[in-house]
Each structure stands twice: as C-alpha cells, then as structure tokens.
Amino acid sequence: xxxxxxxxxxxxxxxxxxxxxxxxxxxxxxxxxxxxxxxxxxxxxxxxxxxxxxxxxxxxxxxxxxxxxxxxxxxxxxxxxxxxxxxxxxxxxxxxxxxxxxxxxxxxxxxxxxxxxxxxxxxxxxxxxxxxxxxxxxxxxxxxxxxxxxxxxxxxxxxxxxxxxxxxxxxxxxxxxxxxxxxxxxxxxxxxxxxxxxxxxxxxxxxxxxxxxxxxxxxxxxxxxxxxxxxxxxxxxxxxxxxxxxxxxxxxxxxxxxxxxxxxxxxxxxxxxxxxxxxxxxxxxxxxxxxxxxxxxxxxxxxxxxxxxxxxxxxxxxxxxxxxxxxxxxxxxxxxxxxxxxxxxxxxxxxxxxxxxxxxxxxxxxxxxxxxxxxxxxxxxxxxxxxxxxxxxxxxxxxxxxxxxxxxxxxxxxxxxxxxxxxxxxxxxxxxxxxxxxxxxxxxxxxxxxxxxxxxxxxxxxxxxxxxxx
Length: 470
What we know:
Elements: H1 9-15, H2 44-54, E1 60-66, E2 68-69, E3 81-82, H3 86-104, E4 113-120, H4 128-139, E5 144-154, H5 161-170, E6 174-180, H6 184-190, H7 196-208, E7 213-220, H8 227-240, E8 244-249, H9 271-287, E9 291-294, E10 297-299, H10 304-311, E11 315-317, E12 320-322, E13 328-332, E14 337-340, E15 343-347, H11 351-361, E16 365-370, H12 373-388, E17 390-392, H13 393-400, H14 404-407, H15 409-414, H16 416-420, E18 424-426, E19 430-433, H17 435-439, H18 441-445, H19 450-457
Parallel strand pairs: 1-4, 1-13, 2-3, 4-5, 5-6, 6-7, 7-8
Antiparallel strand pairs: 8-10, 9-10, 11-12, 14-15, 15-16, 17-19, 18-19
Helix pairs in contact: 3-4, 3-11, 4-5, 8-9
C-alpha cells in the first residue's frame, strides 16, 4: 500500500518563506545584460551554430510564445498583451517568420524536436488558420522526433472545437489550461469567469480529438477563497480527472505587475488559511492516487512524469517538469527564454521592439547568462533535488571532479535543521528528500544557491524578488 503524504501545518508555517522556483539556475535575476561581462547577446547566432555542430544527433526542446489575451486576469504574472486586433497578430506571425529564417541559417533546426510547446498569453487567441500557419512555418524548418510531446496552453473561454480539432490534426497531443478556481465569487474577483461546463467541454473535445494528456492549473490564495469552496474546486477537478495538475500559490507582486493592485487584498485568505487550502489539496490529490512530483505538481501514476520521477529521470526547464533531460531549448517570440550551448538566452519583452529587432537583424535576444563550471555543478544538485528528490554524491563527484562533502561543507551544515525537522535524510552516499521534504523542496535547495547567498550577504532579502514557497 502506498504511504500517505501527511504534512504538519506547523512545519508548513515555519518554512513558508520567499525562495526561487528554480526553473533555471542561476535564476533569471542573476543573468547579465552587460555584453562586457558574462554574455554578449550578439553572439546568439554563434551559440546556435556551435550547438548545431557539437551535438547534431541530440534532440532539442522548442518553445513559442504567443502573448495575446482578450482580457487581463488580475492574478496573471505572465508576459501578455491585451488585444483583439487580427492585424497585430498577423504582424507578430510575420516577426516569428523572420526569427525562424535567422535560426534556420545556423543549422540548429536539423536537430529533432522532442518537446514542443506553445505558451502565452493565449495561443488559442489565434484563429484556426493562423494556428495552422504558425505550425507550418515552424515545421517547414524543424522536424519532430518519434514520441515527441507536442503541447499548447488554451483558454476555454476563447477556444473552439474547430481549433481543438485543427490542433490535434497538426499533431498536438497535450493541452494545458488555467482554471484557478471554480467558485463564481472567486472568478468574479480575479476577472476570470470560466464555467465548469466550459472547461469540461474543451477537455472533452480534446480527448475526443485524440489528445492523450490534459493539465489543469489551480491557484490558492485568491480573494474570497474559503476552505469549503476550494475543496469543491479540487473535488470538481478530481472528477474531471486531468492527467496532470499544477497547484500554484498566488504570487501578489503589484510592484512588478501593476494590474494586480486592483485585487481586493482584504478578501484574500490569511497566511494560516492558505496553509489550510494547500494542506487540504495535498491530501485530496494524494488520496485520489495522484503522484506528488514536488513543488506544486501532481500527475496520475501512469503519466510519463510520474514514471520518470519513480526511476530518477525527471527533469525541469522553462516549460516546467519534463522527461526531456538535458535538451537544449530554442525559444521563439517576445520575452521567450531558451538555453543554447551552455547559455541561457532571453528575447526582449517589449512587443514593438521584438518585431523591430527580428525584422532588422533576425533575432531579439537582449540578455542571457553563460554558465560557469560552478553554475553547472550547483544546477545539477538543485535540479536533482527539485526533480528527483535525491542527490547521488558519487555521481556528482565523478561528473564534476570534486569532493562533495568538502566542497559543500557549509551547505551540508545548513541542512542540519531540515534534517532535524524530517525534511531530509543525509548519508555518506546521498541527500534524499523525505515525503514532507518533497513539499518543501525549494527550501532544501536554497543552501546550494550561491547567488542567493551573496544577495543575502548584501542585505537583499529576496522578499520582493521571489514568491513564497507556500
């Protein structure tokens, strides 16, 4: 019988601090914009060429960002543009075509694509013909590897059965959608009115069209959420039975996302109430048989993410959890982030500048970070904790040429309290998260973050930079 996951509320309260989510290490706040320092954006093409030549037989990941939404949800932290202009969308598709031509000249497109994702914004703000046009433009250069995951984010409020049918016909086999909460008063408060019937209809259309995987996003910490109300949302989600669920903690950052200032903060649940929402949800998904992958993600036992977590091959990149370990990632579109030839790279976040840059020079990379050997060492450790819940010291030593305990004596010392609290088990051979430690893995990863340590030494707490861990 599978061991039940039980997390003491007192422990959750004690570890509810601000910390990075580690979609990358170093995190984006530590990347250099100055070409005189770690990374020169003008070398993006050279990096692509180097990656094409050095690893021609390895598959890659490919991401495309479509920023448009018809309305602005108050909770949103993504890079979005509120527009219903078809002319603007056509201009954007033309800009991506410019970017594709530049990438094609580097030879990187000869490598097969194993993970392919469209995010936003709302990719299904494009009409069926535009969806097909964009897909065709990309696939006229790239080609899919066998068994590739081909996914797209959809908004049930604007997604039609025709779009779903067209997407499935193109080869999309997975959809992801935000629900956040099914309670009407919560939906009104966050300006995301999306009925249960609407959500079920899109999921049914996707499954009837042959899409094999559905992900649903929920958020706790929103105005007017109650313990009973969110339990109903979770119960409805379990009845829908998506293959994957992401349970996010709402990050209220109005100094970064000005529209969030319109949120009724007086109606938000207290810190203690949020812990109740989280603990209740963990218990409900665990009882229903979902595998807790860590951070805020769950998957059915037969899902490939659960299988990868069980055998220690789960990975994490800017698209989230994935089975595609070590894949370099090419990213298209405004604000998109990629990883090429040992460097993180990001496109400009301003849409007019992106369109101008790709028209003039073929790319819109404006910053990035060239990883050092120490960056790669620490990333390896952090990703192993975040993805597979354990670090094999001997493997790290063999691959990076270090003495683990000597190199990380300070960090191991800082893990003493998490060990005493039952989050971590330390041995001569490994660092291993307990089931409770899986819930609090961000806290356990923090000691290995050299950049965060240096920020704290400078008096920068990170409270206005990173979201709460719970």
